[in-house]
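Weekly sync notes, structure subgroup
Attendees: PM, AL, DS (notes)

Item 1: joint prediction request from the bench team. They want all two components modeled as one assembly rather than separately. Inputs as received:
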Amino acid sequence: MKSRNHVRDDKGSRSFAIIGYTVMTIVTIISFVPFWLMLTASISDEMDVLTKGFSLIPRKLSFAAYKSIFGGFQQLLRSYGVTIFVTAVGTVISLLLTSMTGYVLMRQDFKARNKVSFFIYFTSLFSGGVIPIYILYVKYLQLKNSIWALILPCILSPWNIFLMRNYMKSIPYSLVDAATIDGANDWQTYIRVIMPLCKAGLATVGLFVALTFWNDWYHASLYVTKESLYPLQYLLHRMLSNAEYMRQAAASGALVEEMAAPSETLKMATAIVVTGPILLLYPFIQKYFVKGIMVGSIKG
Amino acid sequence: MKKGTETAVMLKPISKSHFLKNRTLWLMIAPTLVYFLIFCYLPMAGIWLAFTKFNFRQGFFRSPFVGLKNFEFLFKSGIMAILLKNTVLYNLAFLIGGNVAQMVCAVFLSDLKNKRFVKVSQNVIFLPYFISWVLVGLFSYALFNVDNGVINSMLRALGLNSYNFYLKPGSWPPIIVFFQIWKGLGYGSVIYLSVITGIEQDIYESARIDGATKWQQVRYVTLPMIKPTFILLVMFNLGSILKGQFQLFYQIIGNNGILFNATDIIDTYVYRSLMVNFDIGMGSAAGVFQSVFGCILVLSVNAIVKRVNKDLALF
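Output from the run, pasted for the record:
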């Protein structure tokens, strides 16, 4: 009896394992192939790519694309500066406002917290739409070609606020009461008690926000026409959507090797350089995102 | 009991004494309130634009009023029908395809014995979530373009004719759905994984004692346990079925008019009317339709969920 059971169980597990490993291996490869392709294409020879197409194994190695990026591509450096500035400043402001809001909303003696929560939440249900916001930014706030047009739109989101509040709610509330009894005012409780205890929450929300800023090309496409304000992703977008762009860059001497401006491989190399920091940081930051998704999916 | 008192608090206006007592807290939250007021509530007045023939010279207040003409044009010309059809069908495909793929991954990842494999696999699957949509557009181009795309160079290597995807609208819906699922797979499977790891091991133990095979355990224990999460996610995403994935569509398709019949959604139409065609009134009308009906949808879905199970409702 026992052995029969064992055999049946074993049989089921074996087919489960075979199918499981097969499916997950395929899924993993599919998830990774585009990244691999990007890497191999960026170190391929341009003529080879043009005549025979992209391939998963580089047929002829060439670092010409990287050479022309680092050789004189001022715009890329400039865009790096824009993206780093927007990401840094935006994330700091966002964390400050998000954590203050989360703190107020977790305070049980703040009686208006449900009303305020709904005031914030409603903005994710209903919106005036892209066009009125565009007109507000461009015509009434005069933010066309201003760096603030890249920072302001992504600073606060209802999702991040509630994520932060959920993190703070997991701190024992008795600590807030104790601080109040010891004579701490609201600011002191926020800075000395809450902030040190929700470092993981700050890291998680901060990384979500930073990722949003780093990957944003959309707001630049709406509000920025000056090349000196192009963030990295928008630079890449322009490069891909605009063959003209390459010719201009070559004509203005931005590219060192105008003769064979390696356009296809250059696209890939630029993509690598633009995404590089995320790929390098990924192993270290990934766990915060996993934690954040779990905390965020708990309704609160 | 608790829910009742909360609603009572909701209904009472905020008293002056309460405001004074909590003035520090109000001060701390003031920037956030001002932010949402300016950047979210103020633009809601922009719904007015949908009823005007807007031009930048005359601005918001003095552009000529045209009543329902914009809406009339959108519906009579058939544009709105295509936009609505595409937006809704794509979202349904994303929703069902995405959730099923995420569940399959979560079920396997939670139960495969080689922890190292699981870890590597999970990390790699999560990777696409971290890249920008611009990169997704580049990947799609590298795979499908006719001159040197991977697929076409493979076709040629096999001695077959190349296939110009960018001239065939019909080939794009599967590609778009694929990239959406591809990018969200890691994120979504984390949600399902956290539910599966929360299932008590005792239940599996007793299933095993009753002689259930691995497949039967998945079918009769795991799937029923993640079903509520699945239903919840589908329900709430049904509410936002009119909201399009603008970045996905715009990065993959761009302004390629040949493909619009199969790939134009409300959001891309609104964006083009703002940035390409400068037809603000028409774009606003499509946007307003999307906002109003989207909001009604969310509210109705929430009301239904509330009636079925109060704890699951969003608000």
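Discussion: The CA atoms of residues 82 and 229 of chain A lie 6 Å apart.
Action: AL to compare against the crosslinking data before next sync.
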